[in-house]
Amino acid sequence: MTVILEINTLVWLGELSRRYGRSVTLGDVPDEVWDQVARPGVDTVWLMGVWERSPAGVRIALGDEGLLASFRAALPDLTEADITGSPYCVRDYVVDASLGGPEGLAEARARLAARGLRLLVDFVPNHVAPDHPWLTERPGCLIQGTADDLARAPGAHVEAGGRVYARGRDPYFPPWPDVVQLNAFSDDLRAATVDTLVSIGDQADGVRCDMAMLLMNDVFARTWQDRAGPPPAEDFWPYVVTRVREHHPDLLFVAEAYWDLEAALHRQGFDLCYDKRLYDRLLHEDADAVRGHLRAGLTHQRGLVRFLENHDEPRAAAALPGERGRAATVALATLPGATLWHEGQFEGRRVRLPVFLSRGPQEPVDEALRAFHDRLLPVAAAVRRGEWRQADPRGRPDDDTHRDLLAWTWTHPDARHLVVVNHGDRTARAWVPLGWDGLRGRRHRLTDLLTGRTYDREGDELADQGLFVALEAWHCHVLSVSAADPGTW
């Protein structure tokens, strides 16, 4: 199962440059750093923000007081040099020279491949920078307007190259000030998108498509109505993905997706889609809501990307501090589907850095949290094998604490594992049914892979009643279950 580590490329290289006392680009990252990136359990590295950033976007950011206030809140000693523009305001799909250019990315991909890791990069299908070449070379790719539109709604339009274009947006927020809207219904854009993704597929093993649901025919039609023209018979992503796969059949397509459109995007060709709903439930809802979410079909779940933070969300150490965060992390790491980790998450960074910045604040490392993740990642890789099944803990009639427990099993021909997480603020007690054959007539040893503690239980009891657990608030078990006398299972 895919495990992705997201790295803010520009910030990371800056930190490495200061550490090593020289300019570090993607082409000359030290081997020991790649060894640290290739930690056990990670198989894909997302180098976020490798493409050329827009000078026009930087100028817009420097004049936006709201953005500047958010920059200063994250980086109190902010300087103008720290503001490099958004990586989602793409000037061109060429690796930025300051990062090492195309040759640097190729070297980074080779270093990752030598360690058994894939390279994932971004694609922004909904919009481009106001100085992107398409505004002059392929204006048919964009939503165009008139001088009257610009005069009536200057915040929603921009003039470039003698033409008026709509600013990029999604239907629920005001337009973004630094980008120009692409037209998902345009034949010219669809051809250009295929060409761009084929080029990206020459340079990487996967692509994370920003706000992918905005390009779906029905969403785009609601957002832009007659401004975009009539919807084509074929939806945007089936058209694009099919043609890109003719050149790169194994290219991993990952969708940033919201609004419960994950299943639709799976059908349209995406391998993986963000599971924002699980994120919200782990942060804000009870165990019943999480349990209900996990009743979705297993095929669907295998195509979801589970996360507790990324560059768009608050840092997990700030949003879910202490034991509650550890419990959510164990749940996330041991579920089916893909897992997304964010650079700095393991060390407990708490400041969500705006993507416009090339430098973050210095933060102390939470050594206990780092040690916890160092234990968890290889454990999760060992656990997530074979068949996954959710279990329903049972409690006594006079004790409803079992409702706070999340539980599931992983069954493989050579291993059996049970995960139990108390997703609640009180001690919870319950019997957890295991659903395994071959338990009777022998004693079994349960080893908690995170703590090393062992528990011996009779197989008949496990078969008849399940495993009795009593977990303090926000605590968990990750148990390996085997016959106490080896060779008799």
Approximate strand percentage = 15-25%
Low-confidence stretches: none
Number of helical segments? 18
Radius of gyration: 25 Å
The neighbouring-strand order within the major sheet is 1-2-5-11-12-13-14-15
Instruction: Kindly name the structural category.
Output: alpha/beta
Mean pLDDT: 95
Most strands sheet:
8 strands, parallel, barrel
Assembly context of the chains:
single chain
Layout: helices, strands, pairs:
Elements: E1 3-8, H1 9-20, H2 31-37, E2 44-48, E3 51-53, H3 55-62, H4 65-74, E4 90-95, H5 101-114, E5 118-123, E6 127-128, H6 134-137, E7 144-145, H7 147-152, E8 157-160, E9 163-166, E10 180-181, H8 187-203, E11 206-209, H9 217-224, H10 236-245, E12 252-255, H11 262-267, E13 272-274, H12 276-284, H13 287-293, H14 298-302, E14 304-307, H15 316-319, H16 322-333, E15 338-342, H17 367-383, E16 387-391, E17 405-412, E18 415-422, E19 428-432, E20 443-448, E21 454-458, H18 459-464, E22 467-471, E23 476-483
Parallel strand pairs: 1-2, 1-15, 2-5, 5-11, 11-12, 12-13, 13-14, 14-15
Antiparallel strand pairs: 3-4, 6-10, 7-9, 8-9, 16-17, 17-18, 18-23, 19-22, 20-21, 20-23
Would you mind describing this structure in some detail?
This protein is α/β, with parallel strands linked by helices and 489 residues long. The chain contains 18 helices and 23 strands. The strands form six sheets. It has an eight-stranded parallel β-barrel with strand order 1-2-5-11-12-13-14-15, surrounded by four helices. It has a six-stranded antiparallel β-sheet with strand order 16-17-18-23-20-21. It has a three-stranded antiparallel β-sheet with strand order 7-9-8.
